[in-house]
TrEMBL record:
InterPro entries in the cross-refs: PTS_EIIB-like_sf, PTS_EIIB_2/3, PTS_EIIB_3
A Pfam family reported for this protein in Swiss-Prot or TrEMBL: PTS_IIB
Source domain of life: Bacteria
Entry's Gene Ontology BP terms: phosphoenolpyruvate-dependent sugar phosphotransferase system
Organism: Herbiconiux flava
Protein name stated in the entry: PTS system cellobiose-specific IIB component
GO molecular-function terms, A-Z: kinase activity; protein-N(PI)-phosphohistidine-sugar phosphotransferase activity
Modified residues (Phosphocysteine): C8
This protein's record includes keyword Phosphoprotein: yes
Keywords, comma-separated and alphabetical: Kinase, Phosphoprotein, Phosphotransferase system, Sugar transport, Transferase, Transport
Keyword presence, Transmembrane helix: no
PTS EIIB type-3 domain span: 1-105
Length: 121
């Protein structure tokens, strides 16, 4: 089972998104676990993470966070600005499916930055 970690500064935004994503993942019958986290607990949780989703308000820190994820064997992606909006959880779920290899990428020229490490499973 793959683990997805959504990280934001204090954990509130990522928690709300994680709750919405869990419903979508359950409805799609995907073998994924979605957790929310903070910058403070990131290093403790990366070893068990396959996909790190970074909140858009952390864009200025994304490069460093992605580097840490890759070192831990995870793939990282910066979430789009609209991820906390009405359709944001659906958008994030689609990206998770693509990053986990559960479906083909919708757009190979996507504007959202992604750093891929060696995915572990």
């Amino acid at each position: 089972m793959d683990r997805v970690l959504i990280v934001c500064g204090a954990g509130a935004s990522s928690t709300f998104l994680a709750v919405r994503l869990r419903r979508i993942i359950r409805d799609r019958d995907l073998d994924l676990v979605v957790d929310a986290g903070t910058l403070a607990d990131l290093d403790d949780r990366l070893a068990a993470t396959r996909i790190l989703l970074v909140g858009p308000h952390l864009a200025d820190r994304y490069a460093g966070l992605a580097e840490r994820a890759v070192r831990a064997g995870a793939v990282a992606e910066l979430l789009p600005e609209n991820v906390f909006g009405r359709d944001g959880a659906e958008i994030a779920a689609g990206r998770i499916e693509e990053l986990a290899g559960l479906r083909a990428p919708a757009d190979l020229n996507a504007e959202t930055p992604t750093n891929r490490g060696d995915l572990h499973g």
